[in-house]
Specification:
Elements: H1 3-12, H2 21-26, H3 32-51, H4 59-63, H5 74-86, H6 91-101, H7 109-122, H8 130-143, H9 147-157, H10 165-169, H11 177-190, H12 193-198, H13 208-227
């Protein structure tokens, strides 16, 4: 059963009057959590599209920045987008429900994965609007992510964002080089597709790791060169 079939079944099971936020309560545990991850990215992406006024842009194109979607599954993905776009629940309620879904994870890695998906969608049209930045900063705040984590994510995706290699690796400039190397290796390990799938990122979305790995390795290369 594909993830999109599971998503369609989860949405179809909603009783009258329930919104998408109710789905997050039903899909809190693996393997259903991978479906919840996809719904969370698409739903918050829909709210973000509404926030920047671009509600008519090609949502399927934006989805494909994050997920591998077959033509047969486009309808289900678009259905989630449209449900979220018209749902009376605000994005902050969605973000709180999603945060609660991962309350058993103390490191915040799945929430960072989610934020990366949202950055992919935000940049899908080639622009990064101030309203999108405000939206994503608020979602990150609700998720409980530190400011440095948000800056690292922004640096990975936004072309004109300040790219501090120490922020990318989550270390201070005065951190000893061996400790920085360890931080780099830990991030590389966490970015491996198998690790991402294990924490609930659907296989269809593991290409999220591509830009992260590029940014992580570039940051380490810059720090190592400067230290030579």
């Amino acid at each position: 059963m594909s993830i999109w079939t599971r998503i369609a079944e989860a949405v179809s099971s909603l009783t009258s009057g329930e919104g998408l936020s109710a789905v997050f309560e039903k899909l809190r545990t693996p393997p259903e959590r991978s479906a919840a991850f996809a719904i969370a990215v698409i739903a918050l992406g829909a709210k973000m599209a509404k926030a920047d006024g671009q509600v008519t842009r090609d949502e399927v194109t934006a989805f494909r920045e994050v997920f591998a979607i077959s033509p047969a599954d486009e309808k289900n993905a678009a259905r989630i987008f449209n449900m979220a776009r018209t749902d009376i629940a605000g994005f902050e309620e969605y973000a709180r429900r999603i945060r609660a879904m991962y309350d058993d994870d103390t490191r915040g890695a799945p929430l960072c994965d989610l934020m990366e998906g949202l950055f992919h969608i935000a940049l899908a049209d080639g622009q990064y609007h101030p309203s999108e930045d405000q939206f994503l900063a608020r979602v990150a705040e609700i998720f409980g992510l530190e400011q440095r984590a948000f800056q690292r994510l922004r640096a990975q995706f936004v072309p004109d964002a300040q790219r501090d290699p120490y922020d990318v690796l989550g270390v201070d400039p005065d951190t000893p080089l061996p400790d920085i190397r360890k931080a780099w290796r830990d991030l590389v390990r966490e970015t491996h597709p198998d690790r991402m799938i294990a924490r609930g990122v659907p296989e269809e979305a593991v290409k999220l790791a591509e830009k992260r790995m590029i940014a992580i390795n570039a940051a380490w290369d810059k720090i190592e060169q400067d230290a030579a």
